[in-house]
Every structure is written in C-alpha cells, then in structure tokens.
Amino acid sequence: xxxxxxxxxxxxxxxxxxxxxxxxxxxxxxxxxxxxxxxxxxxxxxxxxxxxxxxxxxxxxxxxxxxxxxxxxxxxxxxxxxxxxxxxxxxxxxxxxxxxxxxxxxxxxxxxxxxxxxxxxxxxxxxxxxxxxxxxxxxxxxxxxxxxxxxxxxxxxx
Length: 158
Hints:
Layout lengths: L3 H14 L11 E5 L2 H10 L7 E14 L2 E15 L7 H28 L5 H4 L8 E8 L2 E12 L1
C-alpha cells in the first residue's frame, strides 16, 4: 500500500520543480482530499489568484494476486484545476482555460514518466511499478467553480 505521506511529498516536489517559461511554479496550491464533499469545500475556499491547483485524492487500494504472490494496486487521482469567474469568459476564453491547464496536466504526466524512467523523485521507488497504460487524463468542468483536468494512474506496490 502506498503511504499517503509519499503522495504528499511528491506533490510538494512537483510544485517546487515544475516551472513555466518565466520560472514561475505551474502549481500554486497543493492539497489532498478525501472525497467529493471534501473537494467541494476546499474549492469554494480557493481564490483565482491561487491558480493552478494540484489536488490529490486519497488513493483507493485493491489487492491482486494470490496467496504468497500478492501486490497492492494503488489507484491515484490528481485534479489540475483553475478557479473560474464565468462572467469574464466567452466560449473561446473558456476553452483557453483547458488549453492552459492541459499544458500543466501534460507536464505532470511527463514528470511521472521521467521519474519512473530515471528512478528520481520522492516516489521513485513506487513509480517503477507505474502502469503507463493506466494513465488517463480527463476534462473536469464546472466543478465548484473550477475547470481543468483529472489525471488518473495505477501503480503496484508490495
């Protein structure tokens, strides 16, 4: 089972390392939530000035294998979101929110893959069991005033 604090350490590492062209952090706010009501409460407390958020969801765990050959499947989700004032956006500028956050979602996935390949980062010992085929990046819209993407991954641990 992947320790929750390892995920939190990895979020802090991502926040510190991923920068834009002006050397500003891609993510200004990180946190971990338990469920949808917890996410709703957290998002309502955020401000646009804190964009972009990287919010991990408490993982789900499933056991696979049999008897003396078992592994944990860790199911992880990371929301990459921007708070949005809808009154300021037409359709084109609204879609640009997804363009901006998609770049950040891709940078996050690229870091996961880089850390797996190079055995670097706070979760390097866990990322070597990342199932690349499990990676999914899906749009999230109008979630408590936020828009962006959710990155979902599976990785195995002993």
